[in-house]
Write a structure and sequence with these properties.
The protein is globular and about 65 Å long. The protein has 342 residues and is an alpha/beta fold. Helix content is 25%, strand content 27%. Residues 87-88, 90-91, 93-94, 102-104 line the site of one zinc ion (ZN). Keywords: Metal-binding, Oxidoreductase, Zinc.
Length: 342
């Protein structure tokens, strides 16, 4: 079969490899779709720790083709979405229920072979069944949606809340939708790209702002802004210094800021601790997807999440390496790899 292998940092190409055989507790899954994510670009450039040689791809769905020993509760032919993050279940964080902070966390597509291939093996406990009636590529959105769902859970959004989402990529556009589902009645998205502002309004943003056209802190939280005094919840989904800096200033006193975007390790921003203290802001990190993958899969299966509009293009395994090697094109939201069928 074909697999897109990170052979070393900076060294990514398609190779012919053997179809893996499922070990005890594993499923062999024929990949239907696997999303390309910013993390894949970070992995290629060594900005995110990994263990090459490894097949990348952590946002995948597919059909169970074979079952390893000790698996009895899923049938061949079932469609699954994979939760890539495997916690050890034994360390102090796992025992305290904080599995995303596991000391020995390993991820499919980062530390063991992932979904940019014709087939992937997945531990049964990481696989969540989704309906065969679903569009085959929609399952690839469960993983990014689960990460957004964890951020929404942490944010404490309530019915009637006001929310600002910073960033118009796939994480921002999924977060807008979840904020509305959580009951927020004002959801403002900020992004420079006009196409993404239009898309945000189509998927539920009540307003959008262009940070290159005006001072968005003034435009949103200023006395004549959209929400004078600031919003209940700010969710940073861009992972850039400028938006992280804006995030605390957009929150109202007593408000919450959630950091969901990934900034490169080691990069820093200036903040004003007095402002966080004096206005009693809650500033939270949201890391991956503890115990939310099943809910995300159910949301995708229910059809309440607009997914088709977030798919910019579908590419083959052979095309994927160059997509990952280049920054996303303007207006591009999500590129899906659809492997060659065996
Ligand atoms: Zn990802
Ligand atoms: Zn652990």
């Amino acid at each position: 079969m074909k697999a897109l292998r990170l052979e070393a940092i900076g060294d990514l190409f398609v190779r012919e490899v053997d179809i893996p055989s499922p070990g005890p507790g594993d499923l062999l899954v024929r990949v239907e779709a696997c999303g390309i994510c910013g993390t894949d670009r970070h992995l290629l450039h060594g900005e995110f720790p990994s263990t090459p040689p490894v097949t990348l791809g952590h946002e995948f769905c597919g059909i169970v083709e074979a079952i390893g020993d000790h698996v009895s509760d899923i049938a061949i032919g079932a469609r699954i979405t994979g939760d890539p993050n495997i916690s050890c279940g034994r360390c102090s964080q796992c025992r305290a229920g904080r599995v995303n902070l596991c000391h020995a966390l390993r991820a499919i597509g980062i530390h063991r072979d992932g979904g940019f291939a014709d087939y992937v093996t997945v531990p049964r406990k990481q696989a969540h069944e989704i309906p065969l009636s679903l569009d085959p590529v929609h399952g690839a959105f469960c993983e990014p949606l689960a990460c957004c769902l964890h951020g929404i859970d942490l944010s404490g959004i309530r019915t009637g809340s006001s929310v600002v989402v910073l960033g118009g990529g796939v994480i921002g556009l999924l977060t807008v939708q979840l904020a509305r589902l959580a009951g927020a009645t004002t959801v403002i998205l900020s992004t420079r790209q006009a196409a993404k502002r239009r898309l945000a309004e189509e998927v539920g943003a009540t307003a959008t702002v262009d940070p290159s056209a005006s001072d968005i802190v003034e435009a949103i939280a200023g006395p004549a802004g959209l929400v004078p005094g600031g919003v209940d919840v700010v969710i940073e989904c861009a992972g850039v210094a400028e938006t992280v800096q804006q995030s605390t200033r957009l929150a109202k006193s007593g408000g919450t800021v959630v950091i969901l975007g990934v900034m490169p390790r080691g990069e820093t921003v200036e903040i004003e601790p007095f402002d966080i203290l004096f206005r009693e802001l809650r500033v939270l990190g949201s890391f991956i997807n503890p115990f939310v993958h099943r809910r995300a899969a159910d949301l995708v299966a229910s059809g309440v999440i607009e997914i088709d509009k977030l798919i910019s293009r579908r590419v083959s395994l052979d095309e994927a390496a160059s997509v990952i090697a280049h920054p996303p094109a303007a207006g591009e939201v999500k590129v899906l790899v659809v492997p060659n069928r065996a």
